[in-house]
Write a structure and sequence with these properties.
This protein is of the alpha/beta class. It has helices at residues 9-28, 32-48, 56-69, 73-89, 96-111, 115-131, 135-166, 174-209, 216-242, 247-264, 268-284, 288-295, 313-319, 323-335, 349-356, 359-371, 376-406, 411-425, 427-432, 441-447, 499-512, 530-533, 540-551, 568-581, 632-646, and strands spanning 437-440, 459-460, 475-480, 525-528, 555-559, 588-598, 604-614. Among the domains are: 296-374, Ankyrin repeat-containing domain (Serine Threonine Protein Phosphatase 5, Tetratricopeptide repeat, Alpha Horseshoe); 386-646, no CATH class. The two termini are 29 Å apart.
């Protein structure tokens, strides 16, 4: 008799809403990788359950926002346009979310210097939102409209200055000056309206909440006002450039606006944003040392950061590329601002420019590093690390995670196929990551010791001419173990007694002897172990690929001893294995642990090794030992990536 389990439409709706709530919360905190997980899972549900199909545009709107924050503007536009088309196809008047999606599209136009398109979209959004009495959307729309008008003015002024340089004894065109001044005046009126509307919302929310603290909506309104004040400082500094006679007065007004924005900032990104604009005005007023206090990450007397470490202005403007942000980055570089801080996501400013693919921003950061005395070799090392991390993110997040989420019987085979196709199709990734390699167990068994990469036992996983799987691999075992040899002259990670080799043989036989494993053909049983499958004469690609290789293996066997969890790379492998088995049946993880016996003389001896399956294992990544300390940032980063694999469930 078979039984079926059906998930009700109400349950799926609750699960979907929970994902959306989690995604919006993490997106508001700018933890993009976590929010991306929540929204891609929600999108999968919309495409799987017919009852949720009508909500697809809501998910796409948030995914478009993530793409914008990641600097992927063409992808963001495509996603948002698809979201708007789906929203418009639904019966009834425009929804609040539809208005918000339109505003997000306008923001991308503004970042791409498509000022007229941005002005058109924001003006339409403002009209619709105001007609629907959407106070928050109206507030944001008028503020964005003001910023679009400011940017039109700034572009006109910059063009005027370029033309003046080309002419001998060139002077400002009075008509252009008048036009710029009018646009700035209009922008300031619109930004003041934004601040006023935000203050009304915040006051209302404070009255509703009473003595119980701020509401989420009240905090958002406070943030909108903060942004308005910061952008008013931009307007005042532009007026200072237009009218040198009133420069001192205009810069004074700019400092007042920026100071107000800084004092009112109440969330991490807003605080970073406001710090920059206050520092920018101070810099223009000749107070460079004070400006750097706002540009850089400094600690107080107790060693604590006086503002959140999670970001600096350089990081903030490296995340979203635009001519506006490139200009801010140049100002930061010229001032000598810090470019080395790593945020709470584990990335620095250079890495964000690599992630979003903006070569111009990348060049600005690199020039800044050179000005700070960073050597060319160190810059190359940082660039290589950034490209490596970008590859990890794209492979884990975009390629492997959707397959793991599906959790089908052939998931691991699909992962091997997709990885092989990705490496073959992407020249950049093929320079960074190695192909999947393996040793047939029968060859390993007959070799008599741990083979080296140069011993000729290793094969590369290859797809057939029609994309079919390599038919030599039915089951692939990843061996995680500690290099126990202390005599480097032996040229092996094993000791003279071949302890690790014998443990591997025993572990495989113990696994094959378990009930349910009789189907495994020994001829198609394969293993991966680093000394053989990583090129020992040029190990960089193999080492970089290691965590991705674990994902392509059916099971991991960790050879546990008293020092295994002291080693950083062992901990990375164990953390990855634990993340892969947590809540899913596609992968398995075993630990081979020692069995002890106490002798008559009181000494404790290892009598044998026992294989046991693990469901999960907490792995502490702090202060683990490394042969090469330069590997630590990579180890920390990969430990974080394994956390995202756990979030798939």
């Amino acid at each position: 008799m078979t039984s079926t389990f059906t998930i009700s439409e109400e349950d799926t709706s609750r699960a979907w809403q929970r994902l959306m709530d989690q995604g919006r919360t993490t997106l508001a905190r700018r933890t993009l990788e976590v929010s991306l997980h929540h929204f891609t899972t929600a999108l999968h549900m919309c495409e799987t359950y017919p009852g949720l199909a009508k909500n697809k545009y809501l998910v796409l709107g948030n995914l478009g926002w993530i793409s914008r924050l990641s600097g992927k503007y063409p992808q963001a536009i495509e996603t948002l346009e698809q979201a708007l088309a789906l929203a418009d196809a639904l019966p009834g008047p425009p929804t609040r979310e539809r208005v918000q999606i339109a505003g997000e599209l306008g923001t991308i136009y503004r970042l791409m210097d498509r000022h007229e398109d941005a002005q058109r979209v924001f003006a339409e959004q403002y009209k619709v939102a105001k007609g629907m009495d959407l106070r928050g959307a109206t507030c944001r729309a008028i503020g964005n409209l003001g910023m679009a008008n400011y940017q039109r003015a700034a572009a006109l002024w910059e063009q005027q200055q370029e033309e003046k340089k080309e002419k001998e004894n060139g002077k400002d065109n009075p008509d252009v000056v008048h036009q710029v001044r009018d646009l700035v005046k209009l922008a300031m009126e619109q930004l003041q309206e934004r601040i006023q509307r935000a203050s009304v919302i915040e006051s209302y929310e404070d009255r509703v909440r009473g003595s119980h603290g701020s509401t989420t909506r009240g905090n958002k309104a406070r943030g909108w006002a903060t942004t308005g004040h910061c952008r008013l400082s931009l307007c005042s500094t532009l007026l200072a450039s237009i009218d040198p006679k009133n420069r001192h007065e205009m810069l004074g007004q700019a400092e007042e606006h920026a100071e107000t924005g800084f004092q009112r900032a109440n969330y991490d990104t807003g605080l970073t944003f406001s710090r920059f604009f206050l520092g920018r005005v101070l810099l223009q007023r000749g107070r460079k040392d004070e400006a750097l206090e706002y540009f850089d990450a400094h600690k107080d007397e107790k060693g604590s950061y006086w503002y959140p470490k999670m970001s600096t202005p350089a990081i903030l403007f490296s995340k979203e590329h635009s001519n506006e942000h490139r200009g801010y980055l140049r100002e930061l570089v010229d001032a000598g601002a810090d470019l080395d801080t790593i945020d709470d996501e584990g990335y620095d400013a250079l890495e964000y420019t690599i992630f979003n693919g903006d070569r111009a921003s990348e060049d600005i950061i690199i020039n800044g590093l050179r000005k700070r005395g960073v050597s060319e070799s160190k810059i190359k090392e940082r660039l290589d690390t950034a490209h490596l991390r970008k590859g990890y993110r794209e492979i884990f997040q975009e390629k492997l995670r959707p397959l793991l989420y599906q959790g089908k019987k052939d998931t691991i085979k699909n992962i091997r196929r997709v990885y092989a196709e990705t490496i073959a199709a992407d020249a950049q990734k093929s320079k960074v990551f190695d192909h999947l390699k393996y040793i047939r167990y029968t060859d390993f068994e007959n070799f008599g010791r741990l083979p080296r990469s140069s011993d000729g036992l290793v094969r590369s996983f290859k797809l057939g001419p029609n994309g079919e799987d390599d038919n030599h691999v039915d089951l692939l075992i990843f061996f995680s173990y500690r290099w126990i040899n202390t005599d480097r002259s032996l040229n092996t990670p094993d000791d003279a007694e071949h302890t690790q080799y014998r443990r591997m043989l025993l572990a495989v036989e113990q696994f094959l002897g378990e009930p349910g494993n009789q189907w495994i053909e020994r001829e198609k049983l394969c293993i991966w172990m680093d000394f053989a499958c990583v090129d020992q004469d040029d190990p960089s690609k193999g080492v970089s690929s290691l965590p991705i290789i674990i994902t392509q293996c059916d099971l991991t066997i960790s050879l546990i001893d008293d020092q295994y969890f002291e080693r950083a790379w062992c901990c990375v492998e164990a953390k990855m294995a634990g993340a892969l088995v947590y809540g899913r049946e596609t992968h398995k993880w075993y630990e081979q642990i020692p069995v002890f016996r106490k002798e008559d003389d009181g000494k404790v001896q290892v009598t044998t090794w026992e294989l046991q399956q693990r469901i999960n294992h907490y792995v502490d990544m702090e202060n683990k030992k490394l042969t090469f300390e330069s590997d630590r940032p990579k180890v920390v980063f990969l430990g974080r990536q394994s956390t995202f694999l756990e979030l798939i469930n």
